[in-house]
Amino acid sequence: MTTTMGSDEQPQSYFPRWKFKASGVIMPEERLSWGQTVVSGLQHCVAMSGSTIIAPLLMGFDPNVAVLFSGIGTLIFFVIVAGRVPSYLGSSFAFIAVVIAATGYAGQGPNPNLSVALGGIVGAGVLYGVIALIVMWSGVGWVERLMPPAVTGAVVAAIGLNLAPVAVKAVSVNAFDTWIGLATVLIIGVVAVAAPGLWRRLPIILGAIGGYLLYLLFANGLGFGKPIDFAQLAAAPWLGMPSFTTPTFHADAIFLIAPVAVILVAENLGHIKAVGAMTGRSLDGYLGRALFADSLATIVAACGGGTGVTTYAENIGVMAATKVYSTLLFAFAATVSILLGFSPKFGALILSIPGPVIGGLSIVLFGLIAAMAGRIWVENKVDFANPANLITVAVALTAGAGDLTFKFGAFTIGGIGTATFGAIILYQILTSPLARRAG
């Protein structure tokens, strides 16, 4: 099978041959020395680890299983895009609000209704796959018309605002928990602003480590809070099978969670275009494949107990900083993640993270999701003097933040679904020819 990279290149084999290059900008079909490939691949593991680990904790998923399927999903992506689009697939935060709503998760420990959430995530993956196949057949123009930046930004902001009460509740159990949560937030901020070099790109994981150590000092050492129990960590073996969970399918959960596919399409579209801009070549020809790969990876993950996955901006940031775009790095990073998934010791360490530390991380991460909307609007020069944009955003934000819920018989649509579908439908109505004639 052959494929082409552009009009000025000759047909190539399905996978690149990864020509060695020692320095300068390393393109997707090039590679560093094998030693540098290992080190750079590990760097991508670190970059994805904060969000990929924290997201399952916030939903009550097993982090070992989530990390394992992030690696499997990345390899699926690697194969389907023919090793020509550099990207890592990690846990998607877009699922958090709808999973919590669908399962009634209390915020601590394993999610007792995990299988119900998995069924909904499979539904989202199937819808995502249908959209991907349509894009492969007809192009991406209709997606951009259906979800212009004003709508996409509104939905992203609604997700972050809908999650805000979860984060606040996690740090509000008592005064000690509140101070630990706020200290974690401060550590993340200081790292993001003042840390040297690539450390600045790892604020979430460094914030988690800093918050953990603070909690350990004041709780285990000085007795201000409930001590961390290391019994499970000590008892966990270094190697072992992950705890897989199979999905169960409930119509209301599927109806609530499936619309997240719309967010994943917009997210993946933005990431592919960002990588294309950084490498100086259009990757639009691989967009349909990338969407389909992400959808398949999400379905596979949910069938075994993993979170839905998406392409990761964290790893795109590492590529922007290093100018190394070799896709081999992601194949190596994925392999490392799969190996970590088979270490119960690693999973027990993650599960020992105290609640207020997770709460502090959540305050930042959920806030960043909401703030990302501002970036979308600014970069795309969204005109808020246009009433169609302004009203669409205003309604979506209120519906998401207030968790506006609609019930249709046995079906329930929570704030995220209401904001998503509401923004899409309202924008199309307000920009329709009929509305323009009326104006």
TrEMBL record:
Cellular compartment(s): Cell membrane
Record carries keyword Membrane: yes
Membrane topology term: Multi-pass membrane protein
Keywords from the named record: Cell membrane, Membrane, Transmembrane, Transmembrane helix, Transport
Pfam families assigned to the protein according to its UniProt record, in alphabetical order: Xan_ur_permease (PF00860)
Domain of life: Bacteria
Major subcellular location class: membrane
Cleavable signal peptide: none
Spans traversing the lipid bilayer: 65-82, 88-107, 114-140, 146-167, 179-198, 204-223, 244-266, 286-312, 324-342, 348-372, 408-430
Family indicated by similarity: Belongs to the nucleobase:cation symporter-2 (NCS2) (TC 2.A.40) family.
Name of protein: Uracil-xanthine permease family protein
Annotated source species: Bradyrhizobium barranii
